[in-house]
Each structure stands twice: as C-alpha cells, then as structure tokens.
Amino acid sequence: xxxxxxxxxxxxxxERSKAKCVYQWYEYQKCVKRIEDDETGQKHCTGQxxxxxxxxxxxxxxxxxxxxx
Length: 69
Description:
The chain is an all-alpha fold. The chain contains three helices and no strands.
C-alpha cells in the first residue's frame, strides 16, 4: 500500500465531463471571438467561462463520491 500512488479522481472526471459541456464551451469561444478586438478592456467573457465550469462541476459532483473510498 505504501507503493501505491494516490491520484486525484476530480481531474480525471473533469476531463471526461468536458464532452458534456460542449455547448457552454462553444458559447465561451463565441464570446472570446466577439470581443477579441476590444482595446478598452471593458468587455469580458467571465459569465460564459463560469457557465462552462459550472457545467463541468455539476457533472463531476454527480460522480465524484462514487469514486472515493
């Protein structure tokens, strides 16, 4: 047991959940493209970015406790 390497299941579950959040990622990318020429720095895509990670966290939350011992 001392030689067993501990891994974080959350990172793996996040990678797997990204496929379920394609719509949110697409919306974020559309926003980034829309504001890329903004020189004032006033426009941002924080809301879309948080929506993307909220989707991932929701999917991970449903599965993470099943993987813990």
